[in-house]
Amino acid sequence: MASRGQTATPTLGKAMLNKYARAFFTRVLTPFAAFLIRRGVSPDTVTLIGTAGVVAGALVFYPMGEFFWGTVVITLFVFSDLVDGNMARQLGRSSRWGAFLDSTLDRVADGAIFGGFILWYAGGGDDLVLCAVSIFCLASGQVVSYTKARGESIGLPVAVNGLVERAERLVISLVAAGFAGLHKFGVPGIQYLLPVALWIVAVGSLVTLIQRVVTVRRESAEAEAAAQGEQDDEDEQQNASHGSEAAT
Question: Where are the transmembrane segments (predicted)?
Answer without folding.
Answer: 20-37, 67-83, 128-146, 192-210
